[in-house]
Amino acid sequence: MKSRHANPAAKFLLRRPLALAAVTLAMFASACARRPVIAKRPPSTTTSRGPNATGPTSPSRPAPHPARPLPEGVYEQGLASWYGIPYHGRRAANGEIYDMHKMTAAHRTLPFDTIVRVTNAKNGKKTEVRINDRGPFVDGRVIDLSFAAAQEIDAVAAGVVPVRLELLEGPHALSNTFTVQVGAFSQRENAMRYIRALEERYQPVTLHPEETPKGRLYHVRVGRVGSETEARRLADRLRREEQITPFIIRLDQ
Question: If we measure between CA atoms, which residue out of 20, 8, 5 comes closest to residue 244?
């Protein structure tokens, strides 16, 4: 389950009305992919990558997230989802085979093999997981837990729960290069059309194909920068100018 999404900017769609139907269809078709679908779902859904995934975020401008001080020792807080079948037995972003019964998780920017304590903010239950995958690509979600990890904090039935993340062990990252993911398409032509539109304003814009349980997805990413701070600035610009929900990803190669 490598990184997970999809949402071309509203401006792009308005400039190309004939492409609207095709792009919308492509984005809905990719909703169950294990790498990204930018999706807004009700809190009762099971997983950001599971069969209940819906379509892309509305192209309207996302509301800004107010900065909130984190409690001492907490690295991040937000929503956690979980994933199991059909990703069980498929290759994770770090190259190993994903096993839903092991204590692992997906995170967009933490280095692989980072050990994270995850606390369910509703019931105080805790679990420890190793990062071996990328995601989730749903706004507001900070981690995608394995089925086993979700069981430990009673998150399976709810599907999505509020959590706090604490870093226990942080291995030295092999790469400190980041990019911003802005869309995912089931049709290569739609992805290339979006890339050509973005290239008028940003460089570089790259295409990243991935085989998923629902078929091939074509991810569109913008930029290649040397720090997460720079990536956040780029993501803020993309959110403001393109009216999309971008996702920062650590490049692991």
Answer: 8
CA–CA separation, 134 and 186 (whole Å): 19
Q: What residues are paired with 219 via a beta bridge?
A: 184, 208
Look-up: residue for tokens 């069981």? 151
Structure tokens at 97: 């085979």
Q: Are 217 and 209 in contact (CB under 8 A)?
A: yes
- How far from 130 is each of 1, 29, 108, 127, 135, CA to CA, in Å? 14, 30, 13, 10, 14
Contact at 8 Å (CB) between 134 and 167?
A: no
Pick from 240, 194, 241: nearest CA to 220: 194
| Distance from chain centroid for Cα 160 | 14
Q: Could you give all domains of the chain from N- to C-terminal order, each with its CATH number?
A: 76-169 (2.40.40.10)
- Compute, in degrees rounded to 10, the torsion defined by CA atoms 16, 208, 93, 27: 20
- The pLDDT profile of the chain, 253 residues, written as one tens digit per residue, is 443 444 444 334 334 433 333 333 333 333 333 433 333 223 333 334 532 232 233 233 333 334 456 767 899 999 999 999 999 999 999 999 999 999 999 999 999 999 999 999 999 999 999 999 999 999 999 999 999 999 999 999 999 999 999 999 988 777 889 999 999 999 999 999 999 999 999 999 999 998 888 889 999 999 999 999 999 999 999 999 999 999 999 998 6
- Which pTM was predicted? 0.72
* Rounded Cα gap, residues 112 and 170, in angstroms: 9
For residue 112, the 8-state DSSP code is: T
